[in-house]
Amino acid sequence: MTKFNEMQTVKRRFFAMRNGAVADNMRRHGASYRIIFGLNLPQIVEIAAETPHSVELAESLWKNQSTRESMLMAPMIYPREEFGFETACRWATEVPTAEVADMLCHRLLRHTPYAWDLAESLVTSTVAMERYVALRLMFNLLPAHLDDIKELAKSEFDKNEPMTAFICRQLIDEIDFLKEEI
């Protein structure tokens, strides 16, 4: 019987669940990945739940930037207690798409003790995707820092940056709603 390493096992699971129609549709709509298996998020979560959580495998998946599902799964299996600030900064600057940023923030960054500090440091970046990561992370940190987040979102919204405009509008609306409830 053939023995596969952890990365090969994950890739075989991706391949077994692949959806060619979804992958083709994503390519037609401009997805920049060389390899797209077309898995949906619940499928990736299922594979992650059955995969040993390790720094080494998560880093290998993260470095596999040519494959959509690898980058989405990496934050799911990185042991939170071992995800340091320097690694978080590196990953935040390597995010290729909003989808990956959303997964990174929701599955990993928001659970770190330095989440607010990271968001504050990224929100002033000259790179739109890094500011998107900051704003997406701030969304995960609500209702803390309501006034600070609203001001940062307004400031970013005024830049009229297509990458961040939508999330800024969402943040401002959510904060307004939360303040009505208080």
The total count of strands amounts to 0
Percent strand: under 5%
As a whole number of angstroms, the C-alpha radius of gyration is: 17 Å
Work out the oligomeric state of the chains in this entry.
Answer: single chain
Structural class of the secondary elements? mainly alpha
Low-confidence stretches: none
Overview of this structure, please?
It is built from 11 helices and no strands. The protein is globular. The chain is mainly alpha-helical and 182 residues long.
Could you give a quick summary of the protein structure above?
The chain is built from eleven helices and no strands.
Secondary-structure map:
Blueprint: H1 6-16, H2 20-28, H3 41-49, H4 55-63, H5 68-77, H6 85-94, H7 98-107, H8 115-122, H9 128-141, H10 146-157, H11 162-181
Helix pairs in contact: 3-5, 4-5, 5-7, 7-9, 8-9, 9-10, 9-11, 10-11
